[in-house]
Specification:
Radius of gyration: 24 Å
Protein name: diguanylate cyclase
Strand content: 15-25%
Organism: Uliginosibacterium flavum
Structural class: alpha/beta
Catalytic activity: 2 GTP = 3',3'-c-di-GMP + 2 diphosphate
Distance between the termini: 29 Å
GO molecular function, one term: diguanylate cyclase activity
Domain GGDEF: 169-305
Length: 306
Amino acid sequence: MDLPEAQREARILIIDDSPSSIRLVSHFVRDMGSVHFATSGDAGLKTAVDLLPDLILLDMEMPGMDGLETCCQLKKHADLLDVPVIFITAHHGVDHEVAGFAAGAVDFIGKPLSEPIVRARVRTHLTLKRQGDTLRELAMMDGLTGIHNRRAFDERIALEARRHRRTPGSLGLVIVDIDHFKAYNDFYGHQAGDACLREVARTIDANARRPGEMAARYGGEEFAVIIPNCTPDEVLRYGEFLIEKVHGLALPHEAVGTGIVTISVGVAAGEPQSDISDQQLLASADAALYRAKAGGRNCVCQGEIK
């Protein structure tokens, strides 16, 4: 599970064709986050997509793809829309500022560079970015269980599918359903049902701790776990592992024959290339979950990617 945005170190990307300018700006902001750099617009675009920085310092005048075009290209990526871009430029005047704001920048730093100004502007926009990330994070949490919600799941699986297309690898998905949950609610009442949901959610979330993994409440008594770089064999074992973990909770469920709360699990994994979308992965895991429930519950079934 990734650290909350407000808790991790800020990532600052400098895009400038001048090594001396990169060294100077890096020196100014070296204690404000991890500093990365690229020496062209094309390289900066690729680095930004891979890095997902918290702030980009972009030279406005570069050969080839200049700063304005680079900024426009950056803002075409959904994952970079909320990343603030500050232009560094020797030009002054309304026309340049209007063009920069139109391209998607949030601020300007004029040359020659002043360390107090650079640090103040960077600090301000990192703070605003962190505050925005915190608000977005809160909007992505399920109020009942305290884990991520369906909106967060939808955004993350789309992001991971895009990332796995850029760097080929197998993306794993797990969908979990609490067995006979309606009978649980009818027997114990809805307050006990809510407590059961929270306990199962905590257990699932506690076992999604590797980088990039995310557990979410998918809807009702269903949960989902996204597992990057996970093979079909690994995702199947993970599903079996979750069944054991929930079984180990030994939550009483006297309304069914098992006597305790159990889960059914559907899993799928595949490389999200052009012919395999995140929706196909989801449909495969969902169909596998249906088979697990139809096959007696308290088990895991694996979906196929066609």
